[in-house]
Amino acid sequence: MGVRNLSFYLVLMAGAAYIATQGLDLWDSGYIIGYSWRIAEGALPYKDFFYKGPPATLFLWSIGVKVLPVWGQYYFLKLINWLLFGWQTQLWLAGIERGLAWKIPNRNLIGWIGVVFSVQFFPMYPWPTTDGLLYSAIAFYLWTLCFKTYKINFYILWIGLFSIAAALTKQSFYAVPVAFLCATALRYPWRTVGYLFLSQLLGLGLFLGALTSFTPLENFLSHTTGETTLSALIYSGVINYFTAYQEIELLWAPLLCMVLAWGIWVLKMRCRWEKSLQLLALCFGIYGIIWAIVVSFHEGSRLLWLGIVIGMMALLGTKTNRDKASVFGLVLAVAWCAAISLGYPFPILMGTSLLVLFLWLLQIQFPSYTSLAQGLLIIGIICGTAYQYHPYAERPLNELHYDLGTVSPKLAGIKTSKVHYEKWQELQKLQRQFRHKTPIVAPNMALFYYAMDIQNPLPADWLLNWEIHRDPKTLLEIASSTENVIFVEKSFVRGNEHFMPQKREDFSMVTDYIVRHFRLQQETKHFLIYNGTPLDAPLPQTSSPRTLP
């Protein structure tokens, strides 16, 4: 590792050491770690608990849960994810440099500011999307190594395996192996494409062999399909880029005027189509960056992505630039896969690479303005972040004073707000009060079981309708045992949970049934305590696929 790379990681981790302490939402932060802890304790997904995605992320982070010391474990898991995010950023940048035959000016500075742009309020807990980006980055880096080597077949093997590893983090990354096949077809003979396809088949075969050693393939497929509708996927992957903005009229009116001015200019100047498209790409990119800084980084990343798509179309128009178009295409494809989500539908986690491709287009057309553009970009992103930053699903930074190490040694070093701290304290007291029973927390706070070293009797930690394998009946039958005590968040009963629809049963029908039909024993400031109760009322049979909020 050179001094330049070392300085990148030192500065990155210095910032991460502070940011990783700030805030702990009660929403989905414990979702992945909770299930990874189950695996570390000997349980297996699909067989012993419900999980709606492919399992690569759970097995990866179960290693960290198993080997790291208990004290501050959650904090150190976040730091490791920060380090891995920084590493994948460097892999993308190195691959782009090699693929475009271009040395990125001030690469470390652009890398740091790109991470700031990309992360924003994402709390950097272990998550399938960041793992999918990591495996994709490794495959991309190896793919660009093929450009200047005769050992293509050796690299192709690992490219295939890592592209399959990316696909095994979440369903939206299933398209990543296909993207690598298409990009390879633009650069290499069909024989090389065939080798890549065979290596991907090898990776898929290894996964299926491991999977079927502990659960039938049908069980895996039933868990990982049926949770979203086709219309929701189309909305997330296509329509979002054109309609899902806070100020839609304010967004499109100036942009359409800009496109109209571009069209008039093209007709008047009669310049080459390639140059015309590159200028249009810069218009979208500049507007997207301004929108990101002034209004929303997440929304701005969509406009920036659209601009890079236009830039790729310009490159595809000439045979000499199709190699570069393949680089653009892979970055865009992975960013698109990362953005197919009903919870976080933005390509922003690939923001560093998108910004660098924008700068490459800029220096092609206006080389003398590249340094100025970099300076303005850095200043703008810093100012925009300072203005917009807010910890995910938490109070502002100046209210995060309460160390959760007093609740659980695993959470040592994590600072939270007063309300969240009070909820954790109440859970700790309730657990001790009902130590002769098995506690269940509903519907959120999935981190509870991991933090308190308690085995959840239910096969699901997070009791939202789209996280329970469409099987509320099984969960309620288990919860009804008199050996259990259920702690229901009052925020659910009041209807003020994050992203909660009007009807409680559309959010968590399991929790709604408990509130309606189980016997209430006690009430605290933040929780309603129910005993396991015989199931006299009719049970809900299934939960619906998740739809748009």
From TrEMBL:
Tagged with keyword Cell membrane: no
Signal peptide annotation: none
UniProtKB keywords: Membrane, Transmembrane, Transmembrane helix
Presence of the UniProt keyword Membrane in the record: yes
Record field: transmembrane: 6-28, 49-68, 108-127, 192-214, 250-267, 279-297, 303-320, 327-360, 366-387
Superkingdom in the source lineage: Bacteria
Protein name from the UniProt record: Dolichyl-phosphate-mannose-protein mannosyltransferase
